[in-house]
Amino acid sequence: MQDHLKEMAVVLKALGDEKRLKIIKMLASNSNETFCVSDVALQLGISQPAASQHIKVLKNIGILEENRKGFRVFYTINSDVLKEYRKEINELFRKAFEKCQYNFSCDQCSYNNKCK
């Protein structure tokens, strides 16, 4: 069992950056295309090292996939993971407005201890 709330906090923290949200938008709205770090940097007007760091955060939560072609790495959006996070975030907000049946004992809550 995993601590689901901690996992979602990591995801929300990764999504809580304007540049990373722009990267997601750029890749998700151009799903037939791939982008390398320099493409992302150019599009966002940031340095390549900064773009690499943002990409790394998104890769760590599974939203981006990489494909190597020679010395270059190209990135695409992982739509399945993005859809799953959307579902989880919707569930998180739905639960926020329900009375806690476990009296905030998160270790007993089935939502917090979901198996992945």
Automatic annotation (TrEMBL):
A GO term for molecular function: DNA-binding transcription factor activity
Residues annotated as signal peptide: none
UniProt key word Transcription: yes
Top-level taxon of origin: Bacteria
UniProt entry keywords in alphabetical sequence: DNA-binding, Transcription, Transcription regulation
Domain HTH arsR-type: 1-97
A Pfam match: HTH_5
NCBIfam families assigned to the protein according to its UniProt record, in alphabetical order: HTH_metalloreg
Protein name per UniProt: Transcriptional regulator, ArsR family
